[in-house]
Amino acid sequence: MASAFLTGNKTTHFICGAIREVKNDLHDLDFADTMLNIDSITTLLAIITFCLLAKFVYDQQKKKYKNFPPGPMRLPIIGNLHMFNLREPYGTLTQMSKKHGSIFSLQFGFINIVVLSGYKVVKDALIKHGDDFSDRPQIPLFAKLIRGYGVVFSNGENWNVMRRFTFLTLRQLGVGSKAMESVIHDECDMLLKAIKSYEGKPFDNLPVMSTAIANILLSIILGNQYTCEDPTILRMKHLIEESVKLIACPMSLLYNVYPPLVNCLPGSHRTTINNNLEFCKLVKEIYTKFKAQPDKHERRSLIEAFLDKQHEVKSKSGLYFHDENLNTLISNLIIAGLEPVHSTLRWGLLLMMKYPDIQKNVQDEIKKMIGVSLPQTEHRKELPFTNAVIHEIQRFGNIAPISIPRATTRDITFKGYFLPKGTFIIMLLRSVLQDKDYFEKPEEFYPQHFLDSEGKFVKNEAFIPFSAGKRSCIGENLAKMELFLLFTRLLQNFTFLPCPGLELNFNPEIGFVSSPKPYMMRAVPRL
């Protein structure tokens, strides 16, 4: 088979001919010159052999899966890496989907990836075939960081146990209730006070916004014993924020494609690994203090509820409540709870400065419907335009343009294509939130996407910023509550203005989430 492959391939004929020409040329050189060229020839032959072997493996795989989704032509060893802007991969995928359709395949190194785009295809995968697309693939960097623990990148029984525990515990702690509204309002009071202290002068909103949202999250995960002012928490927060950006850097992406090779090189992947080790050490210091507390202490946080579960060794599920799972679960929840809300609000304020008429319409509606009263979750129905603007900020900001990768749980046929068990799946959420069949002006900021002709709020089925199905965001209800209450109170109390002479920048930061670059703004008090 190998000989037939070598003699029948046009590329091989060309390479063999080139090698013969090199050999003929060597006969015309003296012995010393020949010896000097032997190392170069050996290297060339090794590269050629490796390329041919890689192509042979690819061709055999292609024959094995005849109905595998098509895609752009790929090169040996690198696959389609040469076609990608590694700093904005979702932009490349968007362009490819326009050319190759809503289902196509790529190759990163030796990894075959299937990309799903457009609302109809993604919905079918997430809802109608939810069980078939519910696994996570083995991604080298995440495998090294997480090792199958926690709730975001785990599979099987570990994922079931951790997700069930997290969901029930968040509900028991009052997430989505009036009690949680009070927590959010308390932090918002501090946020308004901090913004007011700038007296309408330019300031960077990133630190103050981050502190408010992080404190809400910490009250749930760690209780009232820690706030963002604590040195340990400040360091943990820095490690997470840095790692979120580094995970999407080119060296981290290359590590996932060629782990043995890139592992030896310096770069963002090594910093991310070191950050994770330090983060786990800090988490251990925290739960060691909790473990030292009396058993009769009233449990008011997720970490305390987890430690209680560690004592449940009678049931099978109790075996999953170990320290490694705790480390990863806390990391998962902080990242999932902090960055999306934080980035969405910062996109929102940037957009309000860009579109002052929309900002004024929101303020007028708030003034008319609730005046100076504290906004409550039930006020959503009374504030349709404000609610539509918040939804459009989420759609336009597009915090997660690419979903966290999925993997097929079994061999399946999807939309006429065969996907073997374990197929690496990327769902292009950007294509869903910009699907022209569901959004009239997909590339513009247009709150009317969520309003009918009478100005009433309407849902849009293609609006799935938190994904959907079994792997949808477990903190979706908390995030929705935070976004509505914080955004409404901010615009109730301030008018946000750009700094004179500074152009508003809508190019996102490089990172795991699509967040706005740091910017200065002014906040003029209204009340």
Automatic annotation (TrEMBL):
Transmembrane segments: 40-58, 103-122
Positions bound to heme: C473
Cellular component annotations (GO), alphabetically ordered: cytoplasm
Superkingdom of origin: Eukaryota
Cited InterPro entries: Cyt_P450, Cyt_P450_CS, Cyt_P450_E_grp-I, Cyt_P450_sf, Cytochrome_P450_fam2
A Pfam family recorded for this sequence: p450
GO-annotated biological processes: aflatoxin metabolic process; organic acid metabolic process; xenobiotic metabolic process
Localization annotation: Microsome membrane
Cofactor(s) demanded: heme
Keywords assigned: Endoplasmic reticulum, Heme, Iron, Membrane, Metal-binding, Microsome, Monooxygenase, Oxidoreductase, Transmembrane, Transmembrane helix
Gene Ontology MF terms: heme binding; iron ion binding; oxidoreductase activity, acting on paired donors, with incorporation or reduction of molecular oxygen, reduced flavin or flavoprotein as one donor, and incorporation of one atom of oxygen
Matching PANTHER family: CYTOCHROME P450 (PTHR24300:SF302), CYTOCHROME P450 508A4-RELATED (PTHR24300)
Family: Belongs to the cytochrome P450 family.
Name the UniProt record assigns to this protein: Uncharacterized protein
Organism: Eleutherodactylus coqui
